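Work Package 3 (structural annotation) set out to generate three-dimensional models for the target panel prioritized at the project kickoff. During this period the team completed the workflow that converts sequence records into C-alpha coordinates, so that structures can be stored uniformly alongside our sequence database. As a representative example, we reproduce one entry of 303 residues exactly as it appears in the project archive.
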Amino acid sequence: MRNAFRDLQSELRRTFTGTRDAVPEWVPLLASGDDAGYHLPGSAVWAVHGDMPTIVAGIRALLMQALHPGALAGVHDHSRFHDDPLGRLAGTIRWIFTVTYGSTDAARGASAWVLRLHESVRGSYVDGHGTARTYAANDPELLRWVHIAFTDAFLSAHKLWGRPIPGGPDAYVREWSQAGRLMGVSAPPLSEAEMRQQLDRWYEDGELRNDERVAETVAFIRDPPLHPILRPGYRVLFAAAVASLEPKYRELLGLRTPRLGPFPLPVVLATRLTLAVVRLALGQVGPSEQAARDRLRRLGYQA
Protein backbone atom coordinates (compact mmCIF):
# COMPACT_ATOMS: atom_id res chain seq x y z
CA MET A 1 0.00 0.00 0.00
CA ARG A 2 2.85 2.35 0.90
CA ASN A 3 4.57 1.69 -2.43
CA ALA A 4 1.31 2.32 -4.29
CA PHE A 5 0.93 5.67 -2.51
CA ARG A 6 4.52 6.60 -3.42
CA ASP A 7 3.80 5.69 -7.04
CA LEU A 8 0.71 7.90 -6.94
CA GLN A 9 2.72 10.81 -5.54
CA SER A 10 5.40 10.33 -8.18
CA GLU A 11 2.98 10.20 -11.09
CA LEU A 12 0.98 13.18 -9.85
CA ARG A 13 4.18 15.25 -9.65
CA ARG A 14 5.22 14.13 -13.13
CA THR A 15 1.79 14.96 -14.55
CA PHE A 16 1.63 18.47 -13.09
CA THR A 17 5.29 19.52 -13.27
CA GLY A 18 6.99 17.27 -15.81
CA THR A 19 9.31 15.72 -13.19
CA ARG A 20 8.70 12.90 -10.72
CA ASP A 21 10.99 13.78 -7.83
CA ALA A 22 12.71 17.14 -7.97
CA VAL A 23 10.96 20.49 -7.79
CA PRO A 24 10.89 22.05 -11.30
CA GLU A 25 13.75 24.47 -11.88
CA TRP A 26 11.43 27.47 -12.21
CA VAL A 27 9.75 27.04 -8.81
CA PRO A 28 12.67 28.23 -6.63
CA LEU A 29 12.86 31.36 -8.82
CA LEU A 30 9.53 32.43 -7.33
CA ALA A 31 11.46 33.20 -4.13
CA SER A 32 13.39 35.86 -6.07
CA GLY A 33 12.21 39.35 -6.92
CA ASP A 34 11.95 42.73 -5.24
CA ASP A 35 8.22 43.12 -4.76
CA ALA A 36 5.15 41.25 -3.53
CA GLY A 37 3.76 40.57 -6.99
CA TYR A 38 0.18 41.06 -8.09
CA HIS A 39 -1.38 38.76 -5.46
CA LEU A 40 -0.82 38.24 -1.74
CA PRO A 41 -1.71 35.58 0.85
CA GLY A 42 -5.35 35.98 1.75
CA SER A 43 -6.27 37.07 -1.77
CA ALA A 44 -9.03 35.41 -3.75
CA VAL A 45 -6.49 34.27 -6.35
CA TRP A 46 -4.32 32.51 -3.75
CA ALA A 47 -7.41 30.85 -2.29
CA VAL A 48 -8.61 29.51 -5.63
CA HIS A 49 -5.29 28.59 -7.25
CA GLY A 50 -3.91 26.99 -4.09
CA ASP A 51 -6.79 24.55 -3.76
CA MET A 52 -7.36 21.13 -5.33
CA PRO A 53 -10.47 22.01 -7.44
CA THR A 54 -8.06 23.62 -9.90
CA ILE A 55 -7.56 20.11 -11.31
CA VAL A 56 -11.23 19.87 -12.25
CA ALA A 57 -11.10 23.46 -13.48
CA GLY A 58 -8.26 22.68 -15.87
CA ILE A 59 -10.30 19.91 -17.51
CA ARG A 60 -13.38 22.12 -17.73
CA ALA A 61 -11.36 24.98 -19.24
CA LEU A 62 -10.04 22.68 -21.99
CA LEU A 63 -13.56 21.50 -22.80
CA MET A 64 -14.92 25.04 -22.97
CA GLN A 65 -12.02 26.41 -25.00
CA ALA A 66 -12.57 23.67 -27.58
CA LEU A 67 -15.96 25.18 -28.46
CA HIS A 68 -14.45 28.26 -30.08
CA PRO A 69 -13.30 27.16 -33.56
CA GLY A 70 -10.59 29.83 -33.75
CA ALA A 71 -9.05 28.85 -30.42
CA LEU A 72 -9.31 25.15 -31.26
CA ALA A 73 -7.70 25.66 -34.66
CA GLY A 74 -4.64 27.15 -33.01
CA VAL A 75 -4.35 24.21 -30.62
CA HIS A 76 -4.99 21.65 -33.36
CA ASP A 77 -2.58 23.17 -35.90
CA HIS A 78 0.30 24.30 -33.70
CA SER A 79 0.13 22.79 -30.21
CA ARG A 80 1.87 19.77 -28.68
CA PHE A 81 -1.50 18.88 -27.19
CA HIS A 82 -1.67 15.38 -28.70
CA ASP A 83 2.04 14.55 -28.88
CA ASP A 84 3.05 15.92 -25.48
CA PRO A 85 -0.05 16.75 -23.42
CA LEU A 86 1.80 16.59 -20.10
CA GLY A 87 4.47 18.97 -21.38
CA ARG A 88 1.81 21.45 -22.46
CA LEU A 89 0.04 21.06 -19.12
CA ALA A 90 3.29 21.69 -17.22
CA GLY A 91 3.87 24.85 -19.28
CA THR A 92 0.38 26.14 -18.53
CA ILE A 93 0.78 25.42 -14.81
CA ARG A 94 4.12 27.27 -14.84
CA TRP A 95 2.45 30.40 -16.24
CA ILE A 96 -0.51 30.23 -13.84
CA PHE A 97 1.66 29.81 -10.76
CA THR A 98 4.16 32.44 -11.84
CA VAL A 99 1.43 35.03 -12.29
CA THR A 100 -0.23 33.90 -9.05
CA TYR A 101 2.83 33.70 -6.82
CA GLY A 102 5.70 35.47 -8.57
CA SER A 103 6.98 39.03 -8.46
CA THR A 104 5.58 41.50 -10.97
CA ASP A 105 8.70 41.11 -13.12
CA ALA A 106 8.33 37.32 -13.08
CA ALA A 107 4.62 37.51 -13.98
CA ARG A 108 5.27 39.95 -16.82
CA GLY A 109 8.17 37.87 -18.09
CA ALA A 110 6.17 34.63 -18.08
CA SER A 111 3.28 36.29 -19.92
CA ALA A 112 5.60 37.88 -22.48
CA TRP A 113 7.17 34.45 -23.05
CA VAL A 114 3.76 32.92 -23.80
CA LEU A 115 2.85 35.79 -26.13
CA ARG A 116 6.13 35.31 -28.03
CA LEU A 117 5.30 31.62 -28.48
CA HIS A 118 1.92 32.68 -29.87
CA GLU A 119 3.41 34.98 -32.53
CA SER A 120 3.83 32.15 -35.04
CA VAL A 121 0.43 30.57 -34.28
CA ARG A 122 -1.60 31.64 -37.29
CA GLY A 123 -3.89 29.93 -39.75
CA SER A 124 -7.47 29.65 -40.94
CA TYR A 125 -10.69 28.11 -39.67
CA VAL A 126 -14.42 28.01 -40.34
CA ASP A 127 -16.38 29.99 -37.77
CA GLY A 128 -19.67 29.13 -36.13
CA HIS A 129 -21.59 30.62 -39.08
CA GLY A 130 -19.72 28.60 -41.71
CA THR A 131 -17.52 31.50 -42.85
CA ALA A 132 -13.82 30.96 -43.55
CA ARG A 133 -11.68 33.23 -41.39
CA THR A 134 -8.04 33.66 -40.43
CA TYR A 135 -6.80 33.50 -36.87
CA ALA A 136 -3.78 34.57 -34.84
CA ALA A 137 -3.28 33.29 -31.30
CA ASN A 138 -2.56 36.82 -30.07
CA ASP A 139 -5.78 38.18 -31.57
CA PRO A 140 -7.48 40.15 -28.75
CA GLU A 141 -10.82 38.39 -29.24
CA LEU A 142 -9.28 34.91 -28.98
CA LEU A 143 -7.23 35.98 -25.95
CA ARG A 144 -10.44 37.26 -24.35
CA TRP A 145 -12.20 33.93 -24.97
CA VAL A 146 -9.36 31.93 -23.44
CA HIS A 147 -9.13 34.25 -20.42
CA ILE A 148 -12.87 34.18 -19.73
CA ALA A 149 -13.23 30.43 -20.27
CA PHE A 150 -10.32 29.92 -17.86
CA THR A 151 -11.70 32.30 -15.23
CA ASP A 152 -15.17 30.78 -15.47
CA ALA A 153 -13.80 27.24 -15.12
CA PHE A 154 -11.66 27.96 -12.07
CA LEU A 155 -14.39 29.92 -10.32
CA SER A 156 -17.11 27.35 -11.09
CA ALA A 157 -15.06 24.38 -9.89
CA HIS A 158 -14.04 26.20 -6.73
CA LYS A 159 -17.62 27.15 -5.91
CA LEU A 160 -18.55 23.45 -6.04
CA TRP A 161 -15.55 21.88 -4.25
CA GLY A 162 -13.47 24.63 -2.71
CA ARG A 163 -13.45 26.63 0.48
CA PRO A 164 -14.92 30.14 0.84
CA ILE A 165 -13.26 32.75 -1.40
CA PRO A 166 -12.02 35.89 0.40
CA GLY A 167 -14.17 38.70 -0.97
CA GLY A 168 -16.40 36.26 -2.82
CA PRO A 169 -16.52 35.30 -6.53
CA ASP A 170 -16.36 38.91 -7.74
CA ALA A 171 -13.03 39.34 -5.96
CA TYR A 172 -11.54 36.39 -7.85
CA VAL A 173 -12.75 37.66 -11.24
CA ARG A 174 -11.49 41.16 -10.46
CA GLU A 175 -8.08 40.02 -9.17
CA TRP A 176 -7.45 37.53 -11.99
CA SER A 177 -8.33 40.19 -14.56
CA GLN A 178 -4.69 41.27 -14.10
CA ALA A 179 -3.65 38.03 -15.79
CA GLY A 180 -5.90 38.90 -18.71
CA ARG A 181 -4.30 42.33 -19.04
CA LEU A 182 -0.82 40.79 -18.95
CA MET A 183 -1.90 38.59 -21.86
CA GLY A 184 -3.22 41.50 -23.91
CA VAL A 185 -6.93 41.36 -23.01
CA SER A 186 -8.36 44.86 -22.93
CA ALA A 187 -10.97 45.64 -20.25
CA PRO A 188 -11.40 42.06 -18.94
CA PRO A 189 -14.54 41.46 -16.85
CA LEU A 190 -14.35 42.59 -13.23
CA SER A 191 -17.33 40.73 -11.76
CA GLU A 192 -18.91 37.29 -12.03
CA ALA A 193 -22.03 38.72 -13.69
CA GLU A 194 -19.99 40.62 -16.27
CA MET A 195 -17.90 37.53 -16.97
CA ARG A 196 -20.97 35.35 -17.52
CA GLN A 197 -22.52 38.00 -19.76
CA GLN A 198 -19.43 38.12 -21.96
CA LEU A 199 -19.15 34.32 -22.03
CA ASP A 200 -22.77 33.89 -23.06
CA ARG A 201 -22.42 36.45 -25.83
CA TRP A 202 -20.32 34.02 -27.88
CA TYR A 203 -22.98 31.35 -27.40
CA GLU A 204 -25.91 33.62 -28.24
CA ASP A 205 -24.14 35.05 -31.30
CA GLY A 206 -23.56 31.55 -32.68
CA GLU A 207 -19.77 31.84 -32.51
CA LEU A 208 -19.34 28.46 -30.83
CA ARG A 209 -19.71 25.14 -32.63
CA ASN A 210 -19.30 21.40 -32.35
CA ASP A 211 -17.78 19.45 -35.23
CA GLU A 212 -15.50 16.48 -35.84
CA ARG A 213 -12.47 18.37 -34.55
CA VAL A 214 -14.26 19.21 -31.30
CA ALA A 215 -15.39 15.59 -30.92
CA GLU A 216 -11.81 14.41 -31.44
CA THR A 217 -10.54 16.87 -28.83
CA VAL A 218 -13.21 15.91 -26.30
CA ALA A 219 -12.39 12.22 -26.83
CA PHE A 220 -8.73 12.96 -26.13
CA ILE A 221 -9.53 14.97 -22.99
CA ARG A 222 -11.81 12.15 -21.81
CA ASP A 223 -9.06 9.54 -22.16
CA PRO A 224 -5.57 11.12 -22.15
CA PRO A 225 -2.42 8.95 -22.02
CA LEU A 226 -2.05 8.88 -18.23
CA HIS A 227 -0.28 6.33 -16.07
CA PRO A 228 -2.69 3.51 -15.11
CA ILE A 229 -2.53 4.48 -11.42
CA LEU A 230 -4.06 7.88 -12.27
CA ARG A 231 -6.84 6.74 -14.58
CA PRO A 232 -9.56 5.83 -12.03
CA GLY A 233 -9.23 9.20 -10.32
CA TYR A 234 -9.11 11.03 -13.63
CA ARG A 235 -12.39 9.44 -14.72
CA VAL A 236 -14.01 10.92 -11.63
CA LEU A 237 -12.47 14.34 -12.27
CA PHE A 238 -13.52 14.33 -15.92
CA ALA A 239 -17.08 13.50 -14.85
CA ALA A 240 -16.84 16.37 -12.37
CA ALA A 241 -15.77 18.80 -15.09
CA VAL A 242 -18.70 17.68 -17.26
CA ALA A 243 -21.16 17.98 -14.37
CA SER A 244 -19.90 21.48 -13.56
CA LEU A 245 -20.67 22.79 -17.06
CA GLU A 246 -23.80 24.81 -17.69
CA PRO A 247 -26.31 22.54 -19.48
CA LYS A 248 -26.22 24.51 -22.75
CA TYR A 249 -22.44 24.13 -23.06
CA ARG A 250 -22.57 20.49 -22.00
CA GLU A 251 -25.18 19.83 -24.69
CA LEU A 252 -23.14 21.71 -27.30
CA LEU A 253 -20.16 19.51 -26.49
CA GLY A 254 -22.31 16.38 -26.80
CA LEU A 255 -21.69 15.39 -23.19
CA ARG A 256 -24.02 14.14 -20.47
CA THR A 257 -23.71 13.88 -16.72
CA PRO A 258 -22.98 10.27 -15.69
CA ARG A 259 -25.98 8.18 -14.72
CA LEU A 260 -26.75 4.61 -13.76
CA GLY A 261 -29.99 4.09 -15.63
CA PRO A 262 -32.36 6.84 -14.49
CA PHE A 263 -30.25 7.70 -11.44
CA PRO A 264 -27.46 10.32 -11.45
CA LEU A 265 -24.17 9.12 -10.02
CA PRO A 266 -22.83 10.94 -6.92
CA VAL A 267 -20.20 12.91 -8.82
CA VAL A 268 -19.91 15.75 -6.31
CA LEU A 269 -19.14 13.41 -3.41
CA ALA A 270 -16.82 11.18 -5.47
CA THR A 271 -14.92 14.26 -6.62
CA ARG A 272 -14.56 15.54 -3.07
CA LEU A 273 -13.05 12.21 -2.02
CA THR A 274 -10.73 12.06 -5.05
CA LEU A 275 -9.45 15.59 -4.44
CA ALA A 276 -8.84 14.72 -0.78
CA VAL A 277 -6.58 11.86 -1.88
CA VAL A 278 -4.70 14.18 -4.25
CA ARG A 279 -4.28 16.74 -1.46
CA LEU A 280 -2.91 14.03 0.83
CA ALA A 281 -0.44 12.94 -1.86
CA LEU A 282 0.76 16.42 -2.83
CA GLY A 283 0.54 18.18 0.53
CA GLN A 284 -1.42 21.16 1.81
CA VAL A 285 1.04 23.83 0.60
CA GLY A 286 2.66 23.49 -2.80
CA PRO A 287 6.30 24.43 -3.49
CA SER A 288 5.27 27.46 -5.60
CA GLU A 289 3.29 28.95 -2.73
CA GLN A 290 6.10 28.18 -0.29
CA ALA A 291 8.66 29.91 -2.53
CA ALA A 292 6.40 32.95 -2.73
CA ARG A 293 6.06 33.04 1.05
CA ASP A 294 9.85 32.91 1.35
CA ARG A 295 10.12 35.98 -0.92
CA LEU A 296 7.43 37.84 1.00
CA ARG A 297 9.09 37.17 4.36
CA ARG A 298 12.39 38.40 2.96
CA LEU A 299 10.66 41.60 1.87
CA GLY A 300 9.07 42.07 5.27
CA TYR A 301 5.52 40.96 4.51
CA GLN A 302 3.49 38.82 6.88
CA ALA A 303 3.52 35.40 5.18
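The two ends are 36 Å apart (CA to CA).
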